[in-house]
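Moderator note: this is an archived Q&A kept for reference. The question asked for a predicted structure of one protein chain; the sequence and the answer are reproduced below.
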Amino acid sequence: MTSESSSRTRNQHLDDDPAFALHRGGKLQVTSTVDVHDQEGLSLAYTPGVARVCDGIADTPELVEDYTWRSNLVAVVTDGTAVLGLGDIGPEASLPVMEGKSLLFKQFGDVDSVPIALACTDVDEIVETVVRMSPSFGGINLEDISAPRCFEIEKRLRERLDIPVFHDDQHGTAIVTVAALHNAARFTGRTLGDLRAVVSGAGAAGIAVTKMLIDGGIGDIAVADSKGMIYDGREGLTPVKRELAAISNKAGLRGSIESALAGADVFIGLSAGEVPENVVATMAENSIVFAMANPNPEIHPDVARRYASVVATGRSDFPNQINNVLAFPGVFRGAFDARATAITENMKLAAATALAALVGDDLSADYVIPSPFDERVVPAVAAAVAAQAREDGVARR
C-alpha cells in the first residue's frame, strides 16, 4: 500500500468519528462583502479605485476603522501552551480550538476574527509579534497561553496598544463566575459581601476570578495552589502570587485547602485537584460549589448537591454551566461598538452585572446564569460594556 493510499485509509477511518468529520477542511472560511462581476466593480474594489481609499487613510488614519474590516476584527492569538484541558500541545494542534473560538465570535457576537497560532513561546517574541501585526486588527484576544507568561504578555500588550486586549482564559472566566456567584448569593439570601470563598487553582483563571470578586466586594477570598493556601509572607511565591497574597486571604488562612474549606461559604474550582466528599461536608450551611474543571469537576455535581444549595460546573450536561461564550462575544461587541481603546476593569464588572441581571425573577438553584443560547446575552453585555467604556473615557464614539 502506498503512503498516499495509507493516508487516505487513515483519514476515512478518522471521519467515522463525528468530531473529525465536522472538522474536515476546518470550521472557517473568508467570504467577501461585495460582489465583483464586471470591470466597473473590479476597478472600484481594486485598482484604481482602492488607491483613493488608501490615500484617504494615509491622510486621515482613523478612516481605517470605517473603510476596512479592522473595526470588527479580532486576532485570536495563542502559542498552544495551555490548550483547554490538553496542556502544551503546540501551535498546530491548537488551531482547531482557535477556529472554534472564531466561530463563536461570529455566531454569537457578529465579530470577525482570525486564528493565529504562533511558533514561539518567548514573552518578548510574542509581544513583538502581536504589536507588529496589530495594525490589521481592531482587538486582540489572547488564548490558551500558559501562566505566568500570560500575565506579562497581556500587561505589556495593553501598555503598548490602543486597541482592546483581552485574555479570555482570565477575564472571560472571571466575568461569568462573578455573575453566577452574585445570583447564587442572591438565591441563598445573601450578597457577595456576606461570603467567604476558597479558590482551588492559582493559574490564569483562578487569579483573575479572585481579583474580580475582590473588586466586586466579596467578604473574603483565599486561593490555594499546589503547595497550599497563598498568604502574605509565604516563601517562594512568584511576583503574581505575591501581589495576590497582598489583596486576598484577610483571614490569614494557612495550610491545606481542605482545612480552609471548613466553614467556607463558597468553593471555586479552577484546577484539576479533587476535593473529597468529607471535606465538602465541612463547608457552611447553604454553601455554594462552583467546580469548573473539565472534563472532571473537582467535586462531582451529584456529590456537591448533597451539601450545597447551588452547584455550577464548566460542563454543558449539568445546570449552571460557567461558559466563557457568555462573556467574550458581548465584551468585544460592546468594545467595538464604542470604538474602545482598552477593556477596563469596570467594563468587565459591567459585563458581569448585565449578565447576572438577565436571570431576574427566574432565579433558582439550577438557574443562576443564562444559557449561552439566550439571545438576550450578547446585546445586554455589549450595551453595558459600551456604556461603561464611555463612562471610563476609553470610547472613541
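Archived answer notes: The mean pLDDT is 95.
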